[in-house]
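Supplementary Methods. Inverse-folding protocol.

Structures were first reduced to a discrete structure-token string of length 41. This string, shown here, constituted the complete conditioning input.
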């Protein structure tokens, strides 16, 4: 039973990390899109 609980806990943590990483990538993509249109010369 402890092994199952540990497995579920690890899967949950992995999912949360995955969501955070993809959210950061989406945010970076958004900012690069916004910044690409400006001429900063």
């Amino acid at each position: 039973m402890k092994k199952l609980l540990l497995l579920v806990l690890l899967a949950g943590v992995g999912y949360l990390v995955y969501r955070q990483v993809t959210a950061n990538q989406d945010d970076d993509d958004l900012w690069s899109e916004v910044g690409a249109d400006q001429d900063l010369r």
